[in-house]
């Protein structure tokens, strides 16, 4: 009989089941988040947004951090370089209705680093901690502030020292939780995520501080194994959730001591793909929504029994009517689905927000 996993809380926000969906630039918009929540995610994060975009506002930009009533609790992730702009944007996101404000100190994309954002802050603890202080002061006390980190710029002793300076300083300034990705900024998305480092950080923080782990979470078994091996309070699934929102329900079943559910059948996939498309079209309009969904279709194809030809069909989609043609041709007969193959390197491309 399985031992139930303790519920995850982020400050005063009750999350519940401790497997959540990460912020994914260019992916985790309202449409993706709603689908993930309906299929078992207890908490989701909006794709990372640049503080200057939030301050500028505008109808087209605001679509990127629109919230649905059904998805609470939901977090908004921010990235930037200037502490004052960070603080102003955090206040705006809190007023929009995000339940948690998350600070991105982890993005390793070259363009982001060149503009002193994301993972660059791991090289400057003083600025990073000023951002944390300003953000914490700018949002109401009821709204928890969290931080996303990588394990350092690189594996030098100096980078390690700066990581722990930021980690300890952020908690001292009032953050409610931290998410740590087990790769360095220099690694980007290459090589394995070091779960032994996550275990070390967990032990360093002690039992009273909340920590989530990230990196190399592609199957429900990975999620449970990270919790068991590192002692983190929860895990944040990134690329493993793109095109496979069923992963959240699957890990819930395993955690309850049940067998791994079968992968969704072709008809089950068709139903979710259609609903995802409808939500995207409602959010962006027919033309932009169709273009936005093309990359999701490519990811959904991994679960189809004819994955390669279905992938090629989604790659060829150019117009909204092409979408229906793919579904009519490849999703009209109900067949068993397949679990997606594990991938090495968990991409969280922040360049869209740079």
Give a short synopsis of this structure.
By secondary structure, the protein is α/β, with parallel strands linked by helices. 43% of the residues lie in helices and 13% in strands.
Written account of the structure:
The protein is of the alpha/beta class and 354 residues long. It has 2 domains: 8-261, TIM Barrel, CATH 3.20.20.70; 266-330. It has helices spanning 30-38, 51-56, 59-62, 83-96, 110-114, 125-138, 157-172, 195-205, 220-230, 247-255, 266-284, 286-300, 307-315, 320-330, and strands at residues 8-10, 13-16, 19-21, 44-45, 49-50, 74-79, 100-105, 145-150, 177-181, 210-214, 234-237. The strands form 2 sheets. Strands 3, 4, 5, 6, 7, 8, 9, 10 and 11 form a 9-stranded parallel β-sheet that branches. The protein has a two-stranded antiparallel ribbon with strand order 1-2. α9 (220-230) links the parallel β10 and β11 (234-237). α9 (220-230) crosses α10 (247-255) and α12 runs antiparallel to α13. It starts with 7 loop residues before the first strand and ends in a 24-residue tail after the last helix. Mean pLDDT is 90; it is low at 344-348.
What is the total domain count?
A: 2
CATH architecture of the largest domain: Alpha-Beta Barrel
Question: And the CATH topology of the largest domain?
Answer: TIM Barrel
Largest sheet: 9 strands, parallel
CATH class of the largest domain: Alpha Beta
**Large-scale geometry:** globular
- Spans where pLDDT lies below 50 across 5 or more residues: 344-348
- Write the element-wise H/E pattern from the N-terminal end onward: EEEHEEHHEHEHHEHEHEHEHHHHH
Distance between the termini: 47 Å
- Share of residues in strands: 5-15%
Mean pLDDT: 90
Radius of gyration: 20 Å
Structural class of the secondary elements? alpha/beta
CATH superfamily of the largest domain: Aldolase class I
Question: Helix segment count?
Answer: 14
Q: Tell how many strands the DSSP assignment holds.
A: 11
What's the helical proportion of residues? 40-55%
